[in-house]
Specification:
This protein is an alpha+beta fold. It has 10 helices and 15 strands. The radius of gyration is 21 Å and the shape is globular. The protein binds zinc ion. Zinc ion (ZN) binds near residues 142, 176, 204 and 251.
Protein backbone atom coordinates (compact mmCIF):
# COMPACT_ATOMS: atom_id res chain seq x y z
CA UNK A 1 0.00 0.00 0.00
CA UNK A 2 2.63 2.48 1.08
CA UNK A 3 4.84 2.05 -2.02
CA UNK A 4 1.97 2.14 -4.44
CA UNK A 5 0.59 5.13 -2.67
CA UNK A 6 3.79 7.15 -2.94
CA UNK A 7 4.09 6.41 -6.65
CA UNK A 8 0.54 7.47 -7.39
CA UNK A 9 0.81 10.40 -5.06
CA UNK A 10 4.05 11.57 -6.68
CA UNK A 11 2.45 11.66 -10.10
CA UNK A 12 -0.55 13.36 -8.59
CA UNK A 13 1.54 16.19 -7.19
CA UNK A 14 3.69 16.58 -10.29
CA UNK A 15 0.77 16.83 -12.61
CA UNK A 16 -0.52 19.87 -10.78
CA UNK A 17 -3.45 18.13 -9.07
CA UNK A 18 -5.02 16.93 -12.30
CA UNK A 19 -4.01 13.27 -12.12
CA UNK A 20 -6.36 10.36 -11.53
CA UNK A 21 -7.01 9.85 -7.84
CA UNK A 22 -9.04 7.36 -5.85
CA UNK A 23 -11.46 10.01 -4.72
CA UNK A 24 -14.07 11.36 -7.08
CA UNK A 25 -14.98 15.00 -7.55
CA UNK A 26 -18.36 14.03 -9.00
CA UNK A 27 -19.20 11.91 -5.94
CA UNK A 28 -18.06 14.72 -3.63
CA UNK A 29 -20.32 17.08 -5.57
CA UNK A 30 -23.25 14.66 -5.42
CA UNK A 31 -23.04 14.55 -1.61
CA UNK A 32 -22.68 18.33 -1.28
CA UNK A 33 -25.52 18.96 -3.75
CA UNK A 34 -27.87 16.94 -1.60
CA UNK A 35 -26.70 18.08 1.83
CA UNK A 36 -26.73 21.75 0.80
CA UNK A 37 -30.03 21.56 -1.11
CA UNK A 38 -33.05 23.68 -0.21
CA UNK A 39 -34.85 20.50 0.82
CA UNK A 40 -32.58 20.19 3.87
CA UNK A 41 -33.25 23.81 4.90
CA UNK A 42 -29.71 24.46 6.10
CA UNK A 43 -29.45 21.42 8.43
CA UNK A 44 -30.15 23.38 11.62
CA UNK A 45 -29.35 21.38 14.76
CA UNK A 46 -32.32 19.19 15.71
CA UNK A 47 -34.42 20.14 12.66
CA UNK A 48 -36.20 18.00 10.10
CA UNK A 49 -33.56 18.95 7.54
CA UNK A 50 -30.85 17.65 9.79
CA UNK A 51 -32.79 14.40 10.16
CA UNK A 52 -32.79 14.02 6.35
CA UNK A 53 -29.03 14.60 6.37
CA UNK A 54 -28.43 11.96 9.05
CA UNK A 55 -30.66 9.47 7.16
CA UNK A 56 -28.51 10.10 4.09
CA UNK A 57 -25.24 9.48 5.99
CA UNK A 58 -26.66 6.35 7.68
CA UNK A 59 -27.70 4.88 4.32
CA UNK A 60 -24.09 5.02 3.11
CA UNK A 61 -22.62 3.72 6.37
CA UNK A 62 -25.00 0.75 6.11
CA UNK A 63 -24.13 0.19 2.49
CA UNK A 64 -20.42 -0.06 3.37
CA UNK A 65 -21.22 -2.39 6.28
CA UNK A 66 -19.72 -0.15 8.92
CA UNK A 67 -20.55 -1.21 12.47
CA UNK A 68 -22.98 1.12 14.26
CA UNK A 69 -20.94 3.24 16.69
CA UNK A 70 -23.54 5.67 17.97
CA UNK A 71 -25.63 4.38 20.85
CA UNK A 72 -27.78 1.28 21.49
CA UNK A 73 -26.23 -0.52 18.53
CA UNK A 74 -27.37 2.24 16.23
CA UNK A 75 -25.49 4.64 13.97
CA UNK A 76 -27.25 7.54 15.65
CA UNK A 77 -26.38 9.01 19.01
CA UNK A 78 -28.97 11.35 20.44
CA UNK A 79 -28.06 14.27 22.70
CA UNK A 80 -29.89 17.26 24.19
CA UNK A 81 -29.02 20.71 22.99
CA UNK A 82 -29.85 24.26 23.85
CA UNK A 83 -29.11 27.12 21.49
CA UNK A 84 -28.42 30.69 22.57
CA UNK A 85 -25.41 32.45 24.00
CA UNK A 86 -23.09 29.86 25.63
CA UNK A 87 -25.79 27.21 25.13
CA UNK A 88 -28.42 29.06 27.14
CA UNK A 89 -31.65 30.85 26.54
CA UNK A 90 -32.38 29.56 23.07
CA UNK A 91 -34.24 26.82 21.27
CA UNK A 92 -34.06 23.42 23.03
CA UNK A 93 -34.30 19.97 21.55
CA UNK A 94 -32.61 16.72 20.61
CA UNK A 95 -30.06 16.20 17.87
CA UNK A 96 -28.01 13.25 16.62
CA UNK A 97 -24.40 12.42 15.91
CA UNK A 98 -23.85 9.70 13.28
CA UNK A 99 -21.02 7.20 13.78
CA UNK A 100 -19.84 4.09 11.94
CA UNK A 101 -16.86 1.88 12.71
CA UNK A 102 -14.68 -0.02 10.26
CA UNK A 103 -13.12 -2.87 12.22
CA UNK A 104 -9.99 -4.15 10.49
CA UNK A 105 -8.87 -6.11 13.54
CA UNK A 106 -6.01 -3.64 13.98
CA UNK A 107 -4.53 -2.45 17.21
CA UNK A 108 -5.16 1.25 16.66
CA UNK A 109 -7.97 3.38 15.33
CA UNK A 110 -8.05 6.59 13.30
CA UNK A 111 -11.06 8.84 13.90
CA UNK A 112 -12.25 10.80 10.85
CA UNK A 113 -14.89 13.41 11.58
CA UNK A 114 -16.76 16.47 10.37
CA UNK A 115 -19.84 18.31 11.54
CA UNK A 116 -22.89 17.99 9.32
CA UNK A 117 -25.16 20.58 10.98
CA UNK A 118 -25.29 24.17 9.83
CA UNK A 119 -27.25 27.34 10.59
CA UNK A 120 -30.64 26.23 9.28
CA UNK A 121 -32.84 29.22 8.58
CA UNK A 122 -30.65 31.57 10.59
CA UNK A 123 -32.74 31.52 13.74
CA UNK A 124 -30.09 30.78 16.37
CA UNK A 125 -28.11 33.99 16.02
CA UNK A 126 -24.88 32.68 14.50
CA UNK A 127 -25.43 34.03 11.00
CA UNK A 128 -23.32 36.89 9.69
CA UNK A 129 -26.20 38.09 7.52
CA UNK A 130 -27.67 41.04 9.46
CA UNK A 131 -31.16 40.00 8.35
CA UNK A 132 -30.71 36.25 8.58
CA UNK A 133 -34.01 35.04 9.96
CA UNK A 134 -35.97 32.87 7.59
CA UNK A 135 -33.15 32.68 5.04
CA UNK A 136 -31.90 29.17 4.33
CA UNK A 137 -28.18 28.87 5.07
CA UNK A 138 -27.20 25.95 2.87
CA UNK A 139 -23.67 25.64 4.24
CA UNK A 140 -22.16 24.03 1.15
CA UNK A 141 -18.62 24.67 2.35
CA UNK A 142 -19.58 24.77 6.06
CA UNK A 143 -19.82 21.86 6.32
CA UNK A 144 -21.44 19.80 3.60
CA UNK A 145 -17.91 19.71 2.19
CA UNK A 146 -16.42 18.07 5.29
CA UNK A 147 -19.34 15.63 5.53
CA UNK A 148 -18.76 14.65 1.90
CA UNK A 149 -15.11 14.17 2.85
CA UNK A 150 -16.06 11.73 5.62
CA UNK A 151 -18.30 9.84 3.18
CA UNK A 152 -15.61 9.62 0.49
CA UNK A 153 -12.95 8.48 2.97
CA UNK A 154 -15.38 5.92 4.43
CA UNK A 155 -16.15 4.62 0.94
CA UNK A 156 -12.48 4.38 0.07
CA UNK A 157 -11.28 2.71 3.26
CA UNK A 158 -14.19 0.25 3.42
CA UNK A 159 -14.06 -0.81 -0.24
CA UNK A 160 -10.35 -0.79 -1.14
CA UNK A 161 -9.01 -4.26 -1.73
CA UNK A 162 -5.98 -3.99 0.50
CA UNK A 163 -6.63 -4.23 4.20
CA UNK A 164 -5.62 -1.08 6.03
CA UNK A 165 -3.42 -1.33 9.14
CA UNK A 166 -5.92 0.74 11.16
CA UNK A 167 -9.52 0.59 12.26
CA UNK A 168 -11.52 3.68 11.39
CA UNK A 169 -14.25 5.52 13.21
CA UNK A 170 -16.23 7.76 10.85
CA UNK A 171 -18.32 10.30 12.70
CA UNK A 172 -20.51 13.20 11.63
CA UNK A 173 -21.33 15.59 14.45
CA UNK A 174 -24.35 17.78 15.03
CA UNK A 175 -24.55 20.89 17.20
CA UNK A 176 -21.15 22.20 16.07
CA UNK A 177 -22.51 25.60 15.12
CA UNK A 178 -24.04 25.93 18.59
CA UNK A 179 -20.66 25.37 20.25
CA UNK A 180 -19.12 21.95 19.42
CA UNK A 181 -22.01 20.29 21.27
CA UNK A 182 -22.12 17.00 19.34
CA UNK A 183 -18.39 16.30 19.39
CA UNK A 184 -18.13 17.22 23.07
CA UNK A 185 -20.93 14.75 23.79
CA UNK A 186 -19.43 12.04 21.60
CA UNK A 187 -16.00 12.37 23.19
CA UNK A 188 -17.67 11.84 26.59
CA UNK A 189 -19.86 8.96 25.34
CA UNK A 190 -17.82 7.35 22.56
CA UNK A 191 -19.11 4.33 20.65
CA UNK A 192 -15.61 2.80 20.75
CA UNK A 193 -12.80 2.80 23.29
CA UNK A 194 -10.88 6.04 22.73
CA UNK A 195 -7.82 4.56 24.43
CA UNK A 196 -6.79 2.89 21.14
CA UNK A 197 -7.26 6.01 19.01
CA UNK A 198 -4.00 7.18 17.48
CA UNK A 199 -5.36 10.46 16.09
CA UNK A 200 -8.47 12.38 15.09
CA UNK A 201 -8.78 14.04 11.69
CA UNK A 202 -11.34 16.81 11.35
CA UNK A 203 -12.53 18.43 8.13
CA UNK A 204 -14.39 21.69 8.56
CA UNK A 205 -14.75 23.74 5.37
CA UNK A 206 -12.64 21.89 2.82
CA UNK A 207 -14.62 22.80 -0.30
CA UNK A 208 -13.15 26.14 -1.31
CA UNK A 209 -9.52 25.48 -2.22
CA UNK A 210 -8.43 28.45 -4.29
CA UNK A 211 -7.71 27.77 -7.95
CA UNK A 212 -4.65 30.02 -8.17
CA UNK A 213 -2.01 29.50 -5.53
CA UNK A 214 -4.04 26.99 -3.49
CA UNK A 215 -3.29 26.86 0.22
CA UNK A 216 -4.49 24.15 2.59
CA UNK A 217 -4.52 25.21 6.23
CA UNK A 218 -3.77 22.40 8.66
CA UNK A 219 -3.84 23.03 12.39
CA UNK A 220 -2.97 20.70 15.25
CA UNK A 221 0.62 20.14 14.07
CA UNK A 222 1.83 20.65 17.64
CA UNK A 223 -0.35 17.87 19.07
CA UNK A 224 2.11 15.10 18.14
CA UNK A 225 5.88 15.26 17.52
CA UNK A 226 5.44 13.20 14.34
CA UNK A 227 3.04 15.54 12.52
CA UNK A 228 5.47 18.10 11.14
CA UNK A 229 7.75 15.69 9.32
CA UNK A 230 4.76 13.74 7.96
CA UNK A 231 3.07 16.91 6.70
CA UNK A 232 6.28 18.21 5.09
CA UNK A 233 6.18 15.24 2.71
CA UNK A 234 3.00 16.66 1.17
CA UNK A 235 4.28 20.17 0.56
CA UNK A 236 4.31 20.86 -3.16
CA UNK A 237 4.39 23.68 -5.64
CA UNK A 238 0.88 22.75 -6.71
CA UNK A 239 -0.57 23.00 -3.21
CA UNK A 240 0.97 24.80 -0.27
CA UNK A 241 0.28 23.48 3.21
CA UNK A 242 0.10 26.20 5.84
CA UNK A 243 0.71 24.66 9.26
CA UNK A 244 -0.47 25.85 12.65
CA UNK A 245 0.40 24.13 15.90
CA UNK A 246 -2.74 24.69 18.01
CA UNK A 247 -4.85 21.74 19.08
CA UNK A 248 -7.66 24.01 20.22
CA UNK A 249 -9.67 25.76 17.53
CA UNK A 250 -13.20 26.66 16.54
CA UNK A 251 -14.16 23.15 15.43
CA UNK A 252 -14.72 19.57 16.59
CA UNK A 253 -11.11 18.39 16.80
CA UNK A 254 -10.94 20.48 19.99
CA UNK A 255 -13.21 17.95 21.74
CA UNK A 256 -10.71 15.16 20.96
CA UNK A 257 -7.66 17.26 21.78
CA UNK A 258 -9.29 17.78 25.18
CA UNK A 259 -9.19 13.97 25.57
CA UNK A 260 -5.41 13.97 24.96
CA UNK A 261 -5.70 12.68 21.40
CA UNK A 262 -3.43 14.08 18.64
CA UNK A 263 -5.56 15.96 16.10
CA UNK A 264 -5.38 17.61 12.69
CA UNK A 265 -7.91 20.06 11.33
CA UNK A 266 -8.12 20.61 7.58
CA UNK A 267 -9.47 23.89 6.23
CA UNK A 268 -9.33 25.53 2.80
CA UNK A 269 -9.70 29.05 4.19
CA UNK A 270 -12.21 31.73 5.09
CA UNK A 271 -14.30 33.59 2.52
CA UNK A 272 -16.93 36.29 2.37
CA UNK A 273 -19.78 33.74 2.19
CA UNK A 274 -18.83 32.32 5.59
CA UNK A 275 -21.95 31.89 7.76
CA UNK A 276 -24.11 33.60 5.16
CA UNK A 277 -26.98 32.31 3.00
CA UNK A 278 -24.60 32.65 0.03
CA UNK A 279 -22.39 29.70 1.09
CA UNK A 280 -23.71 27.70 -1.87
CA UNK A 281 -22.76 24.76 -4.06
CA UNK A 282 -21.84 26.84 -7.11
CA UNK A 283 -18.71 28.07 -5.29
CA UNK A 284 -17.44 24.60 -4.35
CA UNK A 285 -14.16 23.39 -5.84
CA UNK A 286 -14.73 19.62 -5.85
CA UNK A 287 -11.41 18.86 -7.57
CA UNK A 288 -9.72 20.87 -4.84
CA UNK A 289 -11.46 18.75 -2.21
CA UNK A 290 -10.34 15.64 -4.04
CA UNK A 291 -6.76 16.88 -3.61
CA UNK A 292 -7.38 17.51 0.09
CA UNK A 293 -8.65 13.94 0.51
CA UNK A 294 -5.58 12.62 -1.31
CA UNK A 295 -3.40 14.42 1.21
CA UNK A 296 -5.44 13.10 4.15
CA UNK A 297 -5.24 9.51 2.91
CA UNK A 298 -1.52 10.07 2.28
CA UNK A 299 -1.00 11.25 5.83
CA UNK A 300 -2.83 8.20 7.19
CA UNK A 301 -0.55 5.96 5.12
CA UNK A 302 2.42 7.57 6.88
CA UNK A 303 1.21 6.95 10.45
CA UNK A 304 3.19 4.51 12.58
CA UNK A 305 1.31 1.20 12.84
CA UNK A 306 3.12 -0.32 15.83
CA UNK A 307 2.44 2.48 18.28
CA UNK A 308 0.12 5.42 18.83
CA UNK A 309 1.20 8.94 18.02
CA UNK A 310 2.55 10.64 21.11
CA UNK A 311 0.17 13.33 22.41
CA UNK A 312 1.53 16.80 23.09
CA UNK A 313 -0.26 19.76 24.61
CA UNK A 314 -0.06 22.95 22.54
CA UNK A 315 -0.19 26.64 23.30
CA UNK A 316 -3.68 28.07 23.32
CA UNK A 317 -4.21 30.18 20.24
CA UNK A 318 -4.22 33.90 20.80
CA UNK A 319 -7.64 34.11 19.13
CA UNK A 320 -9.17 32.69 22.31
CA UNK A 321 -8.56 35.96 24.06
CA UNK A 322 -10.62 37.85 21.46
CA UNK A 323 -13.73 37.04 23.46
CA UNK A 324 -12.62 39.46 26.15
CA UNK A 325 -12.24 42.43 23.77
CA UNK A 326 -14.55 45.36 24.18
CA UNK A 327 -14.43 46.24 20.47
CA UNK A 328 -14.44 44.47 17.15
CA UNK A 329 -13.64 45.55 13.62
CA UNK A 330 -15.98 43.00 12.10
CA UNK A 331 -13.63 41.19 9.74
CA UNK A 332 -12.56 37.62 9.11
CA UNK A 333 -8.76 37.73 9.27
CA UNK A 334 -6.63 35.45 7.15
CA UNK A 335 -4.68 32.97 9.26
CA UNK A 336 -2.27 32.05 6.53
CA UNK A 337 0.32 34.76 7.13
CA UNK A 338 2.94 35.31 4.46
CA UNK A 339 2.10 39.03 4.16
CA UNK A 340 3.38 41.94 6.21
CA UNK A 341 0.25 43.17 7.94
CA UNK A 342 -3.04 41.43 8.53
CA UNK A 343 -4.93 40.33 5.44
CA UNK A 344 -8.70 40.75 5.59
CA UNK A 345 -10.29 37.65 4.14
CA UNK A 346 -13.80 39.02 4.45
CA UNK A 347 -15.50 42.14 5.75
CA UNK A 348 -18.70 41.45 7.67
CA UNK A 349 -21.73 43.52 6.63
CA UNK A 350 -22.85 46.39 8.87
CA UNK A 351 -19.89 46.11 11.29
CA UNK A 352 -17.33 48.94 11.95
CA UNK A 353 -14.85 47.96 9.22
CA UNK A 354 -17.66 47.66 6.66
CA UNK A 355 -19.05 51.08 7.59
CA UNK A 356 -15.59 52.62 7.23
CA UNK A 357 -15.28 51.25 3.69
CA UNK A 358 -12.88 48.36 4.24
CA UNK A 359 -12.83 45.78 1.43
CA UNK A 360 -12.15 42.04 1.21
CA UNK A 361 -8.46 41.58 0.48
CA UNK A 362 -7.28 44.77 2.19
CA UNK A 363 -4.14 44.34 4.30
CA UNK A 364 -4.28 46.19 7.62
CA UNK A 365 -0.90 47.82 8.37
CA UNK A 366 -1.79 50.28 11.11
CA UNK A 367 -4.54 50.87 13.68
CA UNK A 368 -4.18 54.33 15.25
CA UNK A 369 -0.48 54.53 16.18
CA UNK A 370 -0.06 50.77 16.32
CA UNK A 371 1.83 49.15 13.47
CA UNK A 372 0.33 45.83 12.43
CA UNK A 373 2.67 43.15 11.12
CA UNK A 374 0.70 40.05 12.05
CA UNK A 375 -2.36 38.80 13.88
CA UNK A 376 -0.68 39.18 17.29
CA UNK A 377 -0.11 42.91 16.66
CA UNK A 378 -3.71 43.18 15.54
CA UNK A 379 -5.07 41.56 18.71
CA UNK A 380 -2.84 43.73 20.88
CA UNK A 381 -3.96 46.90 19.11
CA UNK A 382 -7.67 46.05 19.35
CA UNK A 383 -7.30 45.51 23.09
CA UNK A 384 -6.44 49.21 23.49
CA UNK A 385 -9.78 50.57 22.28
CA UNK A 386 -13.15 51.13 23.92
CA UNK A 387 -16.55 51.05 22.31
CA UNK A 388 -17.45 54.37 20.67
CA UNK A 389 -13.82 55.42 20.10
CA UNK A 390 -12.55 56.12 16.58
CA UNK A 391 -9.22 55.35 14.97
CA UNK A 392 -7.58 55.73 11.60
CA UNK A 393 -6.93 52.29 10.16
CA UNK A 394 -4.39 52.16 7.36
CA UNK A 395 -4.78 49.42 4.81
CA UNK A 396 -2.76 48.36 1.82
CA UNK A 397 -5.19 47.97 -1.06
CA UNK A 398 -3.51 46.60 -4.19
CA UNK A 399 -0.27 48.39 -3.31
CA UNK A 400 -1.86 51.73 -2.35
CA UNK A 401 -2.11 52.86 1.27
CA UNK A 402 -5.66 53.90 2.14
CA UNK A 403 -6.71 55.51 5.43
CA UNK A 404 -10.12 54.61 6.82
CA UNK A 405 -11.80 56.19 9.82
CA UNK A 406 -13.26 53.39 11.89
CA UNK A 407 -15.65 53.97 14.78
CA UNK A 408 -15.72 50.97 17.10
ZN1 LIG B 1 -18.11 24.59 10.36
Amino acid sequence: MKQLFLIIFGSFLMSGLSAQTWFHADTIMKHINYLASEELQGRGTGTEGEKLASDYIVSYFKNWKLKPAGENNDYLQEFDFEAGVHGQGGRKGKANNVAGYLDNGSKFTVVIGAHYDHLGTGIDGHSLDPHSEGKVHNGADDNASGTAGVLELARYFSTNTEKEPFNFLFVCFSGEELGLLGSAYYSEHPGIDLKNVTCMINMDMVGRLKQDEPVLEVSGIGTAPEWKSILEKFQSKALKIQMDSAGVGPSDHTSFYNKDIPVLHFFTGTHSDYHKPSDDVDKINAEGEEAVLMIISGIIAQLPVDRKLEFLKTRNPSMNSSKSFKVTLGIMPSYTGGTDGLKVEAVIDDKPAFKAGMKDGDIITKIGDNEIHDIQDYMKALGKFEKGQSAIVTVNRNGNLVELKVTF
